[in-house]
Amino acid sequence: MTLYELLLFFHILGVAVWVGGSIMLGFISSRIERSGDAAFRAKFAQSAGVVGPVIGVSALLVLGTGIGMVLESAVELSDLWVWLGLALFGLSAIVGGLYFAPASNKIVAALESGQVEEADRRAKTFNMVSMLDTLLLLVIVGLMVFKPGATISG
Questions:
Q1: What phi and psi, each to the nearest 5 degrees, are found at residue 91?
Q2: Could you tell me which of 105, 95, 31, 5 has the C-alpha nearest to residue 59?
Q3: CA 58/CA 13 separation, integer angstroms
Q4: What pTM, to 2 d.p., does this model score?
Q5: Exposed, middle or buried, 118 (CB in 10 Å: 0-12/13-18/19+)?
Q6: Are 66 and 11 in contact (CB under 8 A)?
Q7: What's the DSSP call for residue 73?
Q8: CB 58 within 8 A of CB 14
Q9: 99 vs 26, 38, 78, 121, 125, CA distance in Å?
């Protein structure tokens, strides 16, 4: 087993947790939002706070192993698919770091204080941002798979 293969294994594992976790959290969140049970929704939003750090750590694993694979191969950082993937990763990281935790906390606070309409309004925005971020993650995966502008094949 080469270092590149080891990095690739952990890269794919990280992507599975990062993207898969984001997709599943979105589906579950949308389903629970429609439940109408404010206490249950608040508990879910609080427990979903555990998922954020797991998704964040997996994203860092993806970034670290991706950079390692570039350094271990003939791929150049200047390749379109690499720098565009990194730029979109950065955008997703900024959204994740600056938006999701504070927005989730505001939804929980609104639900706990009985402001269900406010929580619903915030949850709709949260879910829209979450869907757009998940779409961004899928674009990143597409860049990694199809490698537009690649200088090497494979």
A1: -60, -45
A2: 95
A3: 8
A4: 0.87
A5: middle
A6: yes
A7: S
A8: yes
A9: 15, 22, 30, 15, 11
- Amino acid making up residue 90: G
> Distances from the Cα of 29 to the Cαs of 9, 51, 134, in angstroms?
29, 12, 13
Radius of gyration of the chain (CA): 18
Query: DSSP class of residue 96?
Result: I
Q: Are the beta carbons of 153 and 98 closer than 8 angstroms?
A: no
Distance in Å from the first CA to the final CA of the chain: 18
- Among 132, 1, 138, 147, which residue's Cα sits nearest to residue 74? 147
Query: pLDDT-based confidence at 153, cuts 50/70/90?
Result: low
Spatial contact of 110 and 119, defined as CB atoms under 8 Å apart:
yes
Written as six digits, the tokens of 86 are 């990194």
User: pLDDT for 58-103, tens place per residue?
Assistant: 999 999 999 999 999 989 888 999 999 999 999 999 998 899 889 9
**What does the block give as tokens for 3?**
């270092």
